[in-house]
Specification:
By secondary structure, this protein is mainly beta. The protein is 6% helix and 48% strand. It is built from 1 helix and 7 strands. Strands 1, 2, 3, 4, 5, 6 and 7 form a 7-stranded antiparallel β-sheet that branches. The protein is globular and about 35 Å long. The two termini are 26 Å apart.
């Protein structure tokens, strides 16, 4: 009997993707204005993403430190940011954040 192979020790790195200053047509294509809004005050926040999040920052400035990495990812007002499912990180928010966001609904692929 063959056992399923699960590469536990070689987990692919989870990267935050930042798209700076997307065009208005790109924002319309994403449907950002129909997404819910969220905001928070400056501070340090430990976050765990159980689903992929795509967000568009209307205002704010963030340094995100992915768990296990010494590097940070910076983003702010005017950026579209994609945070992968399963990522744990610390957000150091220096300017209050106001953003539109959506989570990818967990769906099983049935193709």
């Amino acid at each position: 009997m063959a056992s399923p192979t699960e590469p536990r020790s070689t987990t692919p790195s989870l990267s935050i993707i930042v798209e700076s200053n997307p065009s208005n047509s790109r924002l319309s294509e994403l449907g950002i204005k129909s997404w819910p809004k969220w905001g928070c005050a400056p501070g340090i926040y430990k976050l765990k993403f159980d689903a992929e999040e795509t967000c568009y920052l209307v205002k704010g400035k963030v340094k995100a430190y992915p768990k296990g990495s010494k590097e940070c990812v910076e983003f702010g007002a005017g950026d579209v940011v994609v945070i992968p499912k399963g990522l744990s990180c610390t957000w150091d928010i220096s300017v209050a954040v106001d953003k539109y966001y959506k989570f990818e609904s967990p769906s099983s692929s049935t193709s």
